[in-house]
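Closing statement on the adenosine-5'-triphosphate sub-project.
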Amino acid sequence: MALRYRRILLKLSGEALMGEGSYGIDRVTLDGMAAQVARTAALGVQIGIVIGGGNIFRGVSAGAAGMDRAQADYMGMLATVINALALQDALRRSGVDCRVQSALTIEQVAEPYIRGKALRYLEEGKVVIFAAGTGNPFFTTDTAAALRGAEMAADIVLKATKVDGVYSADPKKDPHANRYRTLTFDEAIGRNLGVMDATAFALCREQKLPVCVFSIFKPGALERVVRGEDEGTLVTVS
Ligand SMILES: Nc1ncnc2c1ncn2[C@@H]1O[C@H](COP(=O)(O)OP(=O)(O)OP(=O)(O)O)[C@@H](O)[C@H]1O
Ligand SMILES: O=c1ccn([C@@H]2O[C@H](COP(=O)(O)O)[C@@H](O)[C@H]2O)c(=O)[nH]1
């Protein structure tokens, strides 16, 4: 079947990496994510990945209460570097050629983020993992995904998370929440739908970069999304 999207920016949930656990990286879950990425890359899709850090540390979590916010955010960004290295390892074991570029300079473990080089890797069919978010405190990896998606001229930002789309309210808290099949950025921002932060939505809206929110736990979902099949929630300008 034909591909709908040839270049994607995939935002992988850090929190989802915990699997059934409450902290860190569950190897079975990690390998499952890597296998989905490997199958999608094999279809000929160019893939950039931003990975979250919520399984390890968030600057806004209870564990950071009382800390200097920027310092806590740098810790959160370093958490995403750990996840990026774990994902690179899993992807390599799945036979995927993969590079990590970090927005914070940590030369011994990852290349620095260089846009032109990242674009070349994508054109060569290599998966590029963008670590350390935007490199700036007070942001999130959702915003990093929107930013790198725009910089890479991706066709779409795919937010792979623990829920299977955008709901009228947080489905983890409200069992009566309804899932949207499609949504506009204005509606998502106006209704304060918390699945993705407003800064990320606003940047995607400005860049006319569609977003699809779907479950990373649903087998084959990523491949269905890149083929343009009905999966998750598609957020667009109009
Ligand atoms: N309206 C909504 N529709 C869907 N999910 C929502 C909504 N409001 C809040 N959520 C919550 O948002 C979560 C996903 O966003 P969040 O950024 O917290 O996690 P993530 O991106 O999966 O993790 P990480 O930041 O570690 O990468 C979902 O697990 C869901 O519980
Ligand atoms: O650009 C960024 C991206 C992330 N952070 C910090 O990292 C953590 C983890 O990222 P999540 O998006 O929550 O998974 C985040 O809470 C921030 O503390 C950042 O400062 N800048």
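The helical segments are 27-42, 69-93, 115-123, 141-151, 185-190, 198-207, 221-226. With this model delivered, the sub-project is considered complete and its resources will be redirected to Aim 3.
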